[in-house]
Amino acid sequence: MPKLDESLLTGLPPFSLLDRAQIREILDQAVSRRYDEGTAIFREGHDADRFHLLLDGYLRVIRSTPGGDQIIVLHISPGQLFGIAPALQRDTYPATAIAAAESIALSWPVRVWDDFIARYPGFATESYKTLGQRLGQIQETLTEMATQAVEKRVACALLRMVHQSGRKSDKGIEIAFPVTRQNISDMTGTTLHTVSRLLSAWQKDGIVESTRKRIVVTNPHALVVLSEA
Length: 229
Known about the structure:
Blueprint: H1 20-28, E1 31-35, E2 40-42, E3 50-56, E4 59-64, E5 70-76, E6 81-82, E7 96-99, E8 103-109, H2 113-119, H3 123-147, H4 150-165, E9 167-169, E10 172-174, H5 181-188, H6 192-204, E11 208-210, E12 215-217, H7 220-228
Antiparallel strand pairs: 1-8, 2-7, 3-6, 3-8, 4-5, 4-7, 9-10, 10-12, 11-12
Helix pairs in contact: 4-5, 4-7, 5-6
């Protein structure tokens, strides 16, 4: 494997306070791997033997309910740590991470976690900040599923993906990774039929444009209004 360049980590929050020599030390302990779309990086309940940093692509984080359903609780963007079970004082992964698009990630053995926390300024602060933000996002999603009408839940889910990965296109703002109607169903705790009905109605009203795995928000303001209804 070619030697990883220090520029990969320079400026990323967990490593932004480090000099090039420190980043070199970290990279020399890392393993780089590419994941095809749909590949599981790790699964809920499995031994947490490594922690990771997403360099490119997007991930879906999936939790199982007591009834056995699968819920997509959040997405992870490039430049973020994930699989950081040691920050939760866990020795198993609390969720499943699936590549939502072709992705590249670095990983390190969990035995170096405490050393990173002790030796590298800013690593601990940013890691626990990320953890707090993720827990907040998951709580927000679960609260929406328990309290909000279906139309509002679906609108909120689309807006979260737009805010996280949206890119301008000639038709509006496109979600940057593949999204199916089943994915949205799994994010919002509703049926595939209901999601299909809503997206078809919104497409007719000029709010979104939905194809097999791509969604473009053509009228963002109207979607915001639906999310706040």
